[in-house]
């Protein structure tokens, strides 16, 4: 205690103990997780450490911008897609560039299920070198193809002779062609659940660049992350070189909200994000897809949706705690608040027009935020307000980088000399010979 007291006296008296605690744990993390020792880097000792100003605009390395998109939820991905369409419109207006794309303003993206499909549409490189889809086009894609991806026919004849998986696979084949994970513009993380290893498997651009046995075609990635276990069943896919085989079902089984996985990946991927050492170095936008009405829980597939939504809320709570005092500016979650909605949440038999109307209402709702040890609270800002404010922060970071000497992100485009997989992928010898 005396050492801590002396340390506090040596610095500004207004410095809060929780900041000190955070920095001490950052030092321990660097030492034990990343192998730094006092000899390797003497500046990591507490005696020589100067507290960091969490809100300092003078940080020369800037912030890594991360987009995270939930699984289908109650709106089959439409709420997240509409959120992205509004955000892209905001970015075009505020940047003065009428052709700006969402992918230009984020450094990494993670998406599960419907969110994985949106991530693939928005971040896969097209023939002109730009993203394949704008946010409006991605929204239209989900609307036009909702029944093929999420709502297969209940007719026994059609389900036997025209499997839903075939319709979805044909759709993704037509959309993505021969594009693979290597053809994405930024680091991409898209989870599924592998029935062979009984573990999550995360498709990762970083891993694909290391070796072909972690590279997959984008059409297979989208099929795997959206393979609903009740409607479609498992789908078997192989890596580009055929050495890695997985039997996949929907990413929502284990990772409906991929925010925690995305943050972990960025913080541990020092090759591409060399100066990102903690949550204060991040700008994270997490998009939910609405909450179902409790009356939908009348079948195994409905319980799957409810379980996914519950898991998403738990991740939101945990991430909110991790961000602590910098949560208000560095972490934004867009989700229906489940309290003030006129439609009393979304029921299972909604048409696409109903889901569009419900999503529009959710965006206009007052936002709900997780509070440390106190559950959730409704705040004054609406979800649309939060998207506008966050868009402004993205623009500021984009402008800052134009005059910055140090790179915030160093994207890999070729394999390194010493192959090393990222923290994202989970494999065992049962599913891979790599």
UniProtKB/TrEMBL annotation:
Q: Does the keyword Transcription apply?
A: no
Q: Which GO terms describe its biological process?
A: lipid catabolic process
Sorted keywords for this record are:
Hydrolase, Lipid degradation, Lipid metabolism
The question of whether Nucleus is a record keyword is answered with no
State the organism of origin: Crotalaria pallida
Q: Which family does it belong to?
A: Belongs to the patatin family.
Q: What function does the entry list?
A: Lipolytic acyl hydrolase (LAH).
GO MF terms listed in the record are: hydrolase activity
SUPFAM superfamilies cross-referenced by the UniProt entry: FabD/lysophospholipase-like (SSF52151)
InterPro entries (UniProt xref): Acyl_Trfase/lysoPLipase (IPR016035), PNPLA_dom (IPR002641)
Tell me the domain of life. Eukaryota
Q: What is this protein called?
A: Patatin
Q: What is known of its domains?
A: The nitrogen atoms of the two glycine residues in the GGXR motif define the oxyanion hole, and stabilize the oxyanion that forms during the nucleophilic attack by the catalytic serine during substrate cleavage.
